[in-house]
Each structure stands twice: as C-alpha cells, then as structure tokens.
Amino acid sequence: MDGWENFRKNWLWFEEFGFGLDLSGAQRKSKIDANAELAAFRAMEDLEGGAIANGSENRRVGHYWLRAPELAPERSIGDEIVRTLERVKAFAADVRSGKIRTEAGPFSDLLCIGIGGSALGAQLLIGALGGDNLQVHFFDNTDPDGFRITLDKIGHRLERTLVIVTSKSGSTPEPRNGLAAVEEEMDKAGLRLGKRAVAVTCSGSELDRRAEDESWLGRFPMWDWVGGRTSVTSAVGLLPAALSAIDVDEFLAGAAAMDRLTRNVENNPAMGLAKACYDLSGGGPAAAMVVIPYCDRLCHISRYLQQLAMESLGKKLSRSGQELSGGLTVYGNRGSTDQHSYVQQLRDGLKNFFVVFIEVLSGREPRRTKAMKNAGNYLEGFYLGTKAALAEAGRPSITITLRQITAHSVGMLVALFERTVGFYGEFTDVNAYDQPGVEAGKKAADRLLALLDELKLFLEKKNMSPNGNDAEAIAAAMGRPKDVEMLFKWLEFLRAQP
Ligand code: PA5
Fold it and tell me: Is the pTM of this model over 0.85?
C-alpha cells in the first residue's frame, strides 16, 4: 500500500466537530482480536450502566454521566449532577460580575489548592482556554518555597483572592498544608479565610465539615463514583474553568459528543487509538507514549495524560489476580520546543516509544499580521517535518487533529483519552480506576512523619542538636535499629533547617 492510500485508509475525520485521528503511521498487525474488542465494548456498557467497575474499592465509575446525566443509573444521581452544574455556573457568574465580592472589591485572583486529579484537569483547561478575568495560581505540592513564590506573586491582592480547595478525600496532606499556608498569610493580614474560600470535596469529609463549620463561601460536591483523574468534567474542573470564563457547557458538550462516537463499533476513534497504543506499547512497559502537542495552549496535556494513563494502567495485578507490572509510560511537552531537546533521540536513538502528535490547525486568535501568519506556518511545518523524519527512520506516530482549540474540542480530547484508557485497561484486564500504589506512598509517608515526631522528642529530651553522624547511636537509643537510614535522613534534614 502506498503512503497516500495508507493515510486515506487510516484517517478518521469528523467534519462536524473538526476533529481527526490519523493512525496511518502506527499500523501493526493487531494483537486485539474481534472478541477482545467486543469484551471491551461490553465492559464499557456495564460501567456506564452503573456496574461496580472499580472492584477493589467497591465503587461505580460514573464520569460519563457527568456529561450525560440522563444516563446515570439512578435519577437522584442525574439530578445532583445537573444541580451541581447549575450551582457552579451561578457561583462563577456571581463572582465574575462582582455580586460575590470581598470587602475590598471584586475578586482579582484565584488560588486553586489541590493535587493530582484535583489539580491537573483545571490546569489543562485554564492553560488551554482560560480568560484573563482572574489571575489563576495553583498550590499543587507541599513545597514551602513554592507556596512562598505564589503568595509573593499574589502579594497585596491576597484580600481579593478566591481560594478553591479541592480534595475528594478531604484529608490529603498536600492541599491541607497549602490551605494552612494561605490561612497563615491571611491571618497575618487580618483577613478571614472563610469569606474567600470554597471547598470541592466529598460530602462529610474533614474538609467539608470544616467548610460548613466556618461558613465558607461555597461547598461543591465530589462523588465517590468519580475518580480524581477523571474528575475534570465534575465541579473539580468545572468550577475553576467557569471562574476563568471558560464555556463549561461547550466543554461538556464536546466530551458528550466524543462519548457518543466512542460507543459506536464503527469508526470509533478511542477503539482505534487504544488498539494502536496497545500494539505499539506491547501492552506493557516496552514502549512509551510521547505526547507532543504543537500548541502552547495544550502545554499541560502530557502531564494530564501521564496521570490518566499511568495511574490507571500501571498495576501490579490483573483483576483476576495475575502478576502483571504493566502500564503505559507517558511523557512529552510540546512542539516545536521538544525538537530542540529529546526529539534527537526519538529520531536516531532507542526505538522504545511511539509519538502522539496533537496538531491544531488554527489558534484561538485569528493570525492577522504577517509575522503571526509566518510563525503559524512554521509551527505546522515543524510538526509535518518531524512526523516525516520519524516515519523515514521507522518510528511510529499517531496524530490527533483539532481544527481549533475551543472548549468543545478540548472536551472531545479529554473524553477520547478517558475512553482510550478504559479500553486499554480492558485489554490488559486491570482495574483502571483504583490507585493502590498512591495509597501505599501516602501510608509510608505517614509512618515516616511519625518517626520524625518521635526523633524530635528524643532530641529535645536529650538536649541534642541534630547530626547525621549520630544516627546509629540515636537509632539504638530509640530502640529503632532498623530505621537507622531514615533517622540519618531526618537528622540531616533537621540540621539543614535554619
Ligand atoms: O487521581 C487520583 O485519584 C489521585 O491523583 C488524587 O486525585 C490525588 O491523590 C488527590 O486526592 P484527593 O482529591 O483526595 O485530595
């Protein structure tokens, strides 16, 4: 088959949506046969029908209902989705119009506190589509330097800063510490946090109770049937998006449109993409997916997809209990920037990857001047050139094409990958909706923080200054010989504190 014929055969284009998928650079004899495809479709139908698709946590998986509430298995769920969306939009409209304001005037800044699935979706949306009505900042770590840099940037506008704290569980340490840092800063400035704060969390969580007790400005629900990494179409993504003047209805409509396409057996872009990813990655860690959007507005997409794919698919055991160690490694940044860093290796080095290009035919702003038109031509030229250079060297690639970056097309993109990951999880028989590894890390950190408290007490009692050289003696005296290495690390950490 010649190149053009191959392209025509493997190019899906949805004219109505200005959305396309080119699998011509990724053709392999598929390891997924018709039965496996059918089983994946059936599993998706069950999941959308309200089955317990997240078996290890005994939960349903309902992100598809968020953009089609009429499909929710119970009317009460659908009603709550609709009600929450209306409340999100009304709250955002009131903030933007200045109806909800501070003593010092309308809100000028938005500080989003959350981590992982409680941050990445909002970052993606605001980066791609955010307006300039509010200056948006994120606390998505527990690094005091990061908190300081952001708080300094906000500076005297802190009194006009709206704080959204997003945490499904309501007890994750990173957002809790971020909240404490901003509260301390507000206390110093004589400001009341509750008058500026909103919580997005599961009903009854620690965060929810606090927001209720202190009469925060708003409380929006998260539900146990929505996973963090698929929560961008819930209040978790929609609230910051609506506050940033993003058309959330269009975003949801885009996701719903893709959901409909990806329920079809024919011309299903998610099934095509999932099969290509599975065939190219070997169904395991053999090849990574390198995501390169040729569009600055999509600069967060690779990190977003990294979490979506790696937290969903990187599991130790299959649902039937088989040892796996599988996953789909994802990295990337953006084109053409990446051509000046790692693309050299992609072209000439290790053959352990496939690329997913995201081509955007037209930006948000019309390119009116000569210089802007020229820059746009180069961006497209660099994408086409890189794709050709990789193909010439036998390196596989896939391209997703968006006619334009709009709320609708970003909604389609998000939903395409959600379904792709869902199908891929079925091919490898993993529970794509739990994250036992994340929980394991959280538990280990809790234990080590308790060890730090014990060490500090010990040092205080003995009136000793911390020094790693004393680790062995201290471990013995504390009756913790097995923890000597960790005690050494904590002693050196304490020694470095001013
Ligand atoms: O996708 C996930 O489940 C995780 O990344 C969570 O979003 C992350 O751990 C934050 O959890 P929480 O929203 O409970 O604070």
Answer: yes
